[in-house]
Structure formats: structure tokens, C-alpha cells
Design goal:
heterodimer; A: alpha/beta; Oxidized Rhodanese, domain 1; two-stranded antiparallel sheet; 6 helices; about 35% helix; elongated; B: about 140 residues; mainly alpha; 5 helices; globular
Amino acid sequence: MKFLKLTLNDIRDVVIIFISVTVLTVLHFLITDFPLFPDTTRLVYDAGEVEFLTPVGSDPIDLNTFLEIRERDSVLIIDTRSYEDFVTGHIPGAVNIPYEETFQYLTELEQMKNIRYVITYCDGDDCLSSVETAGKLAFIFPVVRYFFGGWKTWTDHGYPVV
Amino acid sequence: MKFMKVLKIVCMVVLSVTFLVSGFAKLLDPHAFVKDVMNYRLFPVQPLHMLAVWLIMLEIFVAAGLWFPFLQRGSAWIIAGLMSFFIILIAIAMIRGLDITCGCFGPGSQKVGWQKIFENLGLLIMSLFLLRPESKPNRSHK
């Protein structure tokens, strides 16, 4: 198409813009405390290895750690999936707080002073509601983790559901 | 034609305001933007901070560049490229069934979906409109 003709001047302008933007980016890193490289967490699971941005105040845990923490006292397991998914099947002992409704339950959660460990989970390793909820609850409970793999990992390994 | 000139100004204002708002919203909380980009699960983690800040600066720069005749076409080309890139990213996220926010305007952005694709498509068409030969600014060095 005629109007999409990329001229040498256009290319030169684009290069000038890219160079200017790169200079601005370098200046940004020099004058702010925004780190050049992110703080990350590596997690090994059945299908391989994945690298996360380390969430503020909460970390991912794998199935083995989940099973271990689950046996402790003062644990609250939160299923962040929808109500429909929850009633279809969930990990025994879990309560349902759909991600969108987290804020509605904050007052109630804040009153649960006896809870020390909170573990959130959602559908699998592609959902983010457990991560988001864990990030919010990290300000309320001493230890908040999200179960990476969640419901899919739990059922894939044949653990009981209710 | 006067109508085309007015249309050109409208496109410039819409693109410029959109990119300025988007850029500065992300600049206020680059961590949130990095998280949004990370959620697409398409990029390596380590260079994400550099990529995010570079992208934010690019958005702000091209938003301003549209108003400078000598940078206008370059900015329009980059906006067209960015929009095409974002449309592809959102489409991939939709195909993969990712339930994520698009990260278009920093924290609190809308979720990926057809609406975002059509919005970006509109901005893409506007940027291509600015690349018409009639809209080519007079260059002093020519």
C-alpha cells in the first residue's frame, strides 16, 4: 500500500527515537531506586522449572511443602476459584474466597488471630488469583504462601477431594 | 482538505493522550507494570525491568514526538508497531486462556479480551492514518 511506504527518513527517525528512549531508560535507572534486575524466585515442579517475580510478602510453594504445612496447626487453606468450581470439588479443609470477593472477607480474616499460616490455591499453574490473594493477605497473616499448581496438581496426584 | 486535517489532529490528540496517560500511569508504578508483563508468560524474567522501563519511556516519547514534525512519522511508525505487537500479545493470552489484566494503563487495567483488541486496532488505524503521504510534514532538511 502506498501510504505504508517506509522511507529512509522514517527509519532514521525511528532509530533516533530508539536511541533517545534508551538514554532516557538509562537515566531512569540512574536517578531512581528501581532495580535493574528483578528479585525472582525459582520453583521446580513436575513439568520443569519456573521463575517468578518474588511477590511481596508471599512465596510460591510446591506440593510437598503444601502437604507439610497443611499438617501444622493454625493453617487456613483458601480456594480462590469461583464458588461453582469450589462446590464441584476442592481440597479438604479449604474455604472458598473467590478472588473477586477477597476484600469482602478482609474484616473477617483480620479477626482470625489464631491463624498463622495461610495457603491459597487456584486452578493450576496458569491461574493468578491465588498469587494475587496471597499478596493481599500477606499484610494480615504472618506466613502466606500460594500453592503453585493448585487444584490441578492436587488432583493429578490423586489426593482426596471433597 | 480541511476535513482530513481535522481528522489528522483528532488522531494525533487521541494517540498522544492515550500514550501519555498510559506511559505516566506505568511510570508511577513500574513494579506493577513488570508484574503485568510477567503475567503474559512470554518473556524471560531477568531483562523485564529494563524492557518495562524502556517501553514506558518509548510510549511517553512517541506521544510527545507526534507533535514534532521531524519525529511525527517515526513516532507514528513506532505506535503502529507497538499496537500490532500488543494485539498479538493479547490474542496469544486469549488463546492460552490466561485470565490476566492487559497492563495497558498500569495498575487496575482491564482484562485481556476482545474489547482491548478492538481498542488497539482503533489506535493502529489512527497511527496508519498519520502515515498517509498527505500527512507527511515539511522537512527543513529536504
